[in-house]
Design brief:
Layout lengths: L1 H9 L3 H11 L4 H9 L1 E2 L45 H9 L12 H22 L13 E5 L7 H6 L3 E6 L2 H11 L9 E4 L2 H6 L4 E7 L8 H10 L1 E12 L3 H14 L16 H10 L2 E12 L4 E5 L5 E8 L3
Parallel strand pairs: 1-7, 2-3, 2-5, 3-4, 5-6
Antiparallel strand pairs: 6-9, 7-8, 7-9
Helix pairs in contact: 2-3, 3-11
């Protein structure tokens, strides 16, 4: 029955899907049109997105910047205006030494990493006209990994040939990342910096591609954060963002199950109110002059213990966009 319904939803016409979205988001026709024009991730021909699960918030209004108590941190004390959320920095500083423990608090990211990399490799190669089957498909690209943590994304990007800069506001994370990268000559040339995206913008840094995976849900002001990402991107460069949808299903799985039942993540890792819906993310990026071209969901199989790419963006999802030339 469920599979039959899923097939029926996928077979909806563009007009029907548009009407469906407008009914749920009456004041967000722009977001609806944008989502319909986004290509679902696939190695085949283009396709429109299937309807997403209703989110708990029917209002298209973008989340307002959130404030939090001041906590002692590394890069956050700089004079640069920042979208950093101090209490989030403290959370990750407390578990920084476990970044490369594949059975530790970051186990979900380790398990998800191959799937994230598959999306990144495919979309970047398609956009920059690279061969995804080559040994070093990202050769010649300058990539910044914003919120790099211990470097679990930066290192495979470097192994694929990219010139990688990893930045994180938590000094402990950067120390762990440097120590681990130095163990392999291929990754030892990664540039790690304890800084913020905003500070890099002040320094005039530019990159072919900007990564911010599982970061935006931890910042105080998503809109300002995305403006910084856009400012770091060269014209027609790429931006890749992954996050968690603010849906009831995401609350049940990403918070209740992952943090309180299965213990995959430390309790309090995520705040449901900090999640963004796909519509909100698309609008925020549009206002930063970034046009979202492809989107995919991550689906976990308890049978195989692996993640796979899907058109189901009701929980975890990833978006690829390009910066419009000035």
């Amino acid at each position: 029955m469920a599979s039959k319904l899923s097939c029926q939803l996928r077979n909806l016409t563009r007009t029907a899907i548009h009407r469906f979205l407008l009914h749920r988001f009456p004041n967000s026709s722009a977001a609806s049109r944008s989502l319909l024009s986004i290509r679902c991730f696939s190695n085949g021909s283009s396709q429109t997105m299937s309807p997403i699960e209703p989110s708990a918030s029917s209002s298209p209004e973008l989340p307002q910047p959130r404030t939090s108590p001041k906590v002692e941190s590394s890069a956050a004390s700089a004079s640069t205006s920042s979208s950093l959320k101090e209490i989030e920095l403290a959370k990750f500083a407390a578990i920084a030494e476990t970044w490369w423990d594949s059975d530790g608090p970051f186990k979900p990211l380790h398990v998800m990493n191959p799937t994230r990399l598959a999306f990144i490799r495919s979309t970047l190669c398609r956009h920059f006209k690279k061969d995804p089957c080559s040994a070093r498909p990202l050769e010649g690209l300058k990539i910044v990994d914003v919120g790099c943590g211990g470097g679990i994304l930066s290192e495979p990007l470097a192994r694929m040939g990219a010139t990688v800069t990893g930045v994180d506001a938590v000094e402990k994370n950067i120390k762990i990342a440097r120590l681990h990268a130095d163990l392999d000559p291929v990754t030892s040339n990664i540039e790690y910096c304890c800084t913020t995206a905003e500070k890099l913008v002040e320094e005039g840094r530019k990159f072919d591609a900007v990564m911010a995976l599982e970061v935006i849900e931890h910042v105080a002001d998503p809109a300002e954060f995305c403006k910084s990402l856009a400012a770091l991107t060269v014209p027609d460069g790429a931006t890749v963002i992954s996050t968690i949808n603010r849906s009831m299903r995401a609350y049940a799985t990403a918070i209740v199950a992952a943090e309180y039942i299965l213990g995959w993540l430390p309790k309090g890792t995520h705040q449901w109110s900090s999640f963004l819906t796909p519509e909100e993310l698309v609008l925020i990026l549009q206002r930063s002059n970034i046009s979202v071209k492809e989107m995919a969901g991550f689906v976990y199989s308890p049978l195989t213990g692996r993640w796979s790419l899907s058109d189901d963006i009701s929980v975890n999802f990833i978006a690829f966009g390009t910066l419009s030339p000035a």
